Amino acid sequence: MRWITGAVIGVLLLVFMGTALYWSNEPDRFDVLARASARAETNGDQVVIGYTTTNTLIEVANTLLEKSGGYISNDMMPPSVMLDNIANWEFGVLVQVRDLSRALRKDFSRSQSQSREDPDLAIAEPQFNFDNNSWVFPATESEYETGLDALRRYQKRLADVAEGNAQFYARADNLRNWFADIETRLGSLSQRLSASVEVRRLNTDLAGDSQASQSTPVEDEVMVRTPWTEIDNVFYEARGTSWALIHLLRAVEKDFASTLQKKNALVSLRQIIRELESTQTSLGSPMILNGSGFGLFANHSLVMASYIARANAGIINLRELLAQG
Question: pLDDT by residue (tens digit) across 123-181?
Fold first, then answer.
């Protein structure tokens, strides 16, 4: 009888481990242009300016809900509750979904600051900002589905050239505003990844403005280090962020093609995408190593920080280029 019990427990453990590994798989990248064309053909839509970007946002957000294991960040039962790496990957993707949905609402869909905001985008943005850990009453997934439905309605109206009651303005200033959000996100991730190794940094919070002040005083030098228990969390958040941005930037390359060509900025955008693609390389280690900068063992966070920092530098340069006349 004991061996039967042991065999059952062994089988259950194998199933448990297999499920955990399968659910931890990061989704593959997809062709944003092909997905947009397929949706347009299915729905009888015309691929107008903004259609590809909106469709890519929908596809990226839908991936959170439909990937292997579904959305697990709010799951309270094993094995999901123990899969913190993929949960942090989801959060990285979600932040980019939130940022672009906000940019759609306040910039891309409006001709000027005093113009009326799109009613469906006014629904979508707050839905994606709902608590990402809510299990029930209501569940996070149901709130995000509501946001997706609103985005699909906006996309359908956008493609209706006869009515013209939804717009997407592919202007350089709109793109610069969204890039500013990306810049702050990547900058923060780069700093947190680099802090996998403890460093002493000078306080530059008020640098560049002799009249600047802050609420409370701080030391001139501070020790910065991401806690070792959070190293892998930040790493996978960065991978999720990069995965989402690869797709969203490829969509922008299509919808803002004329603007980018006028500024001779297409190659700069493509280089940023290439840097982000490097972050998606498969890991050759079963765990995120945290060796010293020039030590015997690898430091995966520092490698990731290098790619993220280069992509962020490209975003900064691209924003400056778009600001030129």
Answer: 999 999 999 999 888 999 999 999 999 999 999 999 998 888 899 999 999 999 999 99
CB hemisphere CA count around 110 (13 angstroms): 18
| DSSP H or E run through 9 | helix 2-23
Nearest one of 304, 310, 315 to 239, comparing CA atoms = 304
Residue 287 Cα to chain centre, angstroms:
22
Say whether pTM exceeds 0.85: yes
**Contact yes or no for 30/59 (Cβ under 8 A):** yes
Look at residues 29, 28, 95, 31 and name the one whose alpha carbon lies nearest to residue 253. 31
Cα three-residue angle 6-83-243, rounded to 5 degrees: 140
Q: Return d(Cα 60, Cα 143) in angstroms, integer.
A: 16
For residue 224, the surrounding DSSP H or E stretch is strand 221-224
Extended beta strands in 88-182, E state: none
**Cα pseudo-dihedral 187, 198, 237, 235, rounded to 10:** 120
Task: Report which of 106, 128, 108, 91 is spatially closest to residue 53, judged by C-alpha positions.
Answer: 108
CA–CA distance, 277 with 305 (Å, rounded to integer): 13
Nearest Cα to Cα of residue 241 among 31, 96, 85, 59: 96
Please compute, for residue 319, the number of CA atoms within 13 A of its CA located in the half-sphere on the CB side: 16
Question: pLDDT, tens digit, for every residue of 177-231?
Answer: 999 999 999 999 999 998 887 666 666 666 655 566 777 776 666 656 777 777 8
